[in-house]
Amino acid sequence: MAEVILEHISKAYSGEKKNNTAPKAIDDISFTVYDKEFMVIVGPSGCGKSTLLRMIAGLDDISSGTLSIDGKKINDLSPKDRDIAMVFQNYALYPHMTVYDNMAFGLKLKRCSKSEIKARVMQTAQLLEIEDELQRKPKTLSGGQRQRVAIGRAIIRRPKVFLFDEPLSNLDAKLRTQMRIELQRLHRKIDATMIYVTHDQTEAMTLGNRIAVLNKGKLMQLDTPLHLYNNPANKFVAGFIGSPAMNFLKGKIQKQDGYYFIHESADCRIYLGPAVPEVLETYINKPIQLGIRPEHVFVCEENDKQTNPDCTLQVIAYENTGNEQLIYLSFADQTLIARRPPLDTMEAGKEKGICFLKDKMVYLDNESGEVIHVNM
User: Fold this and answer.
1) What are the backbone angles phi and psi of residue 322, rounded to the nearest 5°?
2) Do the Cβ atoms of 247 and 293 come closer than 8 Å?
3) How much is the pLDDT for 323?
4) Which of 63, 182, 282, 337 is deepest in the core (most CB within 10 A)?
5) Contact (Cβ atoms closer than 8 angstroms) between residue 1 and residue 35
6) Per-residue pLDDT for 297 more than 90?
7) Rounded CA gap, 288 and 366, in Å?
């Protein structure tokens, strides 16, 4: 078993103090990475995700809390005694060594026999499809090949846990997509516990069995990719997970021959029905926010006489990406984004009726940013 358990982990930098307290890069984080799971830690720059990974690796000290692997507390163990392998963003390959020697280096330090080293290097090279590159040096390899060598050097040690610190960020978009597929294939083949850090939510959504979303050192939500997308816990997660980001509208719920959400600009009235859940009744005439994903915003067709639009907005611009079309609409002092299949060219400057898919709207408390859980 290679289960990693974090219990109330915090990291404070005592050299910097504000109001007599040291600021926390990591603030009371607890979760479990299950055996053979691919866990992704995601968040914006400076949220503490790499710091958390370095604490698991033993490269940064833990200020408070308990870190365990296989039920054994490892807070005070040195990195070499934790049975963990880490793949860094910059590959960290020895430039004067061949690919073979880079991969064999850790086994040589362990004083493995030459025959065992050769067998394991060849086995790992075949797994990563770099067996033809073993006599080359890193400077002659492409970015993708260097990354495979760095991963191979970690795999060859057969550790309990693999840690990845933004390993694909130096690659171009096409190669990143290819390497994401390779990492999924690799995880299935070696059946290991992996913890992967990234700022790219697309990587997080495509790679992780579960995703831990961090912001300002705090754990915002931990769940499966689809559940995070469809059921965010707060405004930060709703806005961070998904591309383009979720649209947010500010306004109030009012009762006028039924219930309406009325945007603060009064240009938008969304009919919610003759009744609303009891929890929303407490928000009547109070500031509230609605969140709605671009694919749940519909542009009404001009010849559609059956649909009553929730508002009429001006088209600012549009993007055709081949498989979809993104439409940017002027909405009070913000831009509203609608996503739809690729249709005819949308004329900028034209006004269009807009409808919102009511059962896909997310209600948010205006002060806390927490999602208000309703059953519509």
Assistant:
1) 100, -60
2) yes
3) 87
4) 337
5) yes
6) yes
7) 5
* Token duo for residue 184: 């999924």
Distances (CA, A) of 158 to 2, 72, 120, 190: 12, 19, 10, 9
Distance CA 226, CA 219 (A): 18
What is the distance of C-alpha 46 from the center of its chain? 14
Instruction: Judge contact between 125 and 131, C-beta under 8 A.
Output: yes
Q: What is the amino acid identity at position 201?
A: Q
Tell me the backbone φ, ψ of residue 280, rounded to 5 degrees. Answer: -80, -25
CA distance 35 to 94: 31
pTM (2 d.p.)? 0.88
8 Å CB contact between 354 and 275? no
Q: Are strands 38-42 and 210-215 parallel, antiparallel or unpaired?
A: parallel
Q: Which two tokens stand for residue 144?
A: 């993708």
Q: Which two tokens stand for residue 255?
A: 């009762």
Q: What is the DSSP string of 300-364?
A: PPTT--S---SEEEEEEEEEE-SS-EEEEEEETTEEEEEEE-S-SPPPTT-EEEEEE-GGG-EEE
SS3 195: strand
CA distance 190 to 181: 15
Number of Cβ within 10 Å of residue 30's Cβ equals: 13
Residue-wise over 172-209: b if at least 16 C-beta within 10 A, else e? eeeebeebbebbeebbeeeebbbbbbbbbbbbbbebbe
221-270 pLDDT, tens per residue?
999 999 999 999 999 999 999 989 999 999 999 988 888 898 887 778 89
**Amino acid (1-letter code) at residue 195:** I
Alpha helices in the chain (DSSP H): 49-57, 99-109, 114-128, 143-155, 173-190, 201-207, 225-230, 235-240, 278-281
How many C-beta atoms lie closer than 10 Å to residue 139's C-beta? Answer: 9
Task: Give the integer Cα–Cα distance in Å for 237 and 224.
Answer: 13
